[in-house]
Design goal:
5-stranded parallel beta sheet; alpha/beta; globular; 10% strand
Length: 272
């Protein structure tokens, strides 16, 4: 379902995109109610919801709901449930191969047009970029900040946006960018930060899993990744995305990125 909707996004109108974000942010519940309920949440008409369903290949909203019901079991597959299925003879190479497959899925799970939109935002060096994440996903957020600052200025990491970094959040300006990493179990502080960013006119880029963080409801760009592994969800796709985005951004920035790297190298040499 998620891949189907993302494949259709480049052709969607503003109304369809709003419906898609609301629907995806609340799967499976959003597809198991009524068309009128989804329409009210997306602030569109019920007829618009039905037309949206038909444009992505379903007979109507009921047909879409039936498709979602067949996928519900995946969302209930908690880390504890997965841990109980582990076998003592699980080989290390099997786990490594699975992570390699997760990296390969990044290209298919993230819409190409959304990646282009991310690069367009990040290439505007007049914007300040702030990265943040959850308990574990902040590792990927911090890694993105460390990588980005090599190719562009004004990149900050928010380790604690509710407390120690709240002053930095207050400094967000219109047109700045917040890149949020939020995977299940989704953390309330991610939504709080996204809401504060939107209040200040900043753009929100969300990196999440296939089931979508609630932040997807208000994010400007959503990058969904397949992170499901045999034990805890994997951050491997998030790190792969970071390490692929930054060289692509450097290529787009051209001389600007080279100038930034020269400045960093010059300061390091002075410190030696």
């Amino acid at each position: 379902m998620v891949e189907l909707i993302h494949d259709a996004m480049p052709r969607m109108s503003t109304t369809d995109r709003r419906i898609a974000h609301i629907l995806l942010a609340d799967l499976p519940r959003g597809a198991l109610g009524t068309a009128s309920e989804l329409a009210a949440r997306a602030e569109v008409s019920a007829a618009s919801v039905v037309r949206f369903c038909r444009r992505i290949g379903f007979a109507g909203f009921t047909d879409l709901g039936e498709r979602v019901r067949t996928e519900v079991s995946r969302t209930a597959n908690s880390p504890v449930a997965r841990a109980r299925t582990l076998r003592p003879d699980t080989a290390l190479d099997r786990e490594l191969e699975h992570r390699a497959e997760l990296v390969r899925t990044v290209m298919s799970s993230v819409p190409a047009n959304e990646i282009d939109r991310v690069l367009t935002l990040l290439s505007d060096t007049a914007r300040t970029v702030m990265t943040a994440g959850g308990t574990l996903s902040q590792l990927a957020a911090r890694y993105l900040q460390l990588q980005l600052r090599h190719v562009r200025p004004r990149v900050l990491h928010l380790a604690d946006p509710d407390q120690s970094d709240v002053g930095t959040v207050l400094d967000l300006r219109r047109r700045d960018i917040v890149v949020l990493f939020d995977f299940r179990r989704y953390e309330p502080r991610s939504m709080r930060l996204a809401e504060r960013a939107r209040e200040r006119g900043a753009s929100v880029i969300l990196v999440t899993d296939a089931w979508l963080s609630p932040v997807a409801r208000i994010a400007d760009i959503v990058l969904p990744l397949d992170v499901e592994a045999s034990f805890l969800d994997s951050l491997t796709p998030a790190f792969a995305l970071v390490e692929s985005l930054v060289p692509a951004l450097a290529a787009r920035l051209g001389e600007k990125s080279l100038h930034q790297m020269d400045r960093i190298e010059s300061l390091r040499q002075r410190a030696d």
